[in-house]
Design goal:
The chain is mostly helical. It has two helices and no strands.
Amino acid sequence: MDYFDNVLIKLRRQYSKDEAVAALSKKISELEIENGALKSEIEHLEFELKKYKKLK
């Protein structure tokens, strides 16, 4: 069995199917928000770098 199968088996033992799906869905949403914030920060830094290079 691979990692995901082991995780799913553990989740099934501790939580009902609906609870596991809700928890995983919430975690995915949090990670998507964090990913979006990091992409925004990267774009901001790239913009600042371009602006800095133009001043030189």
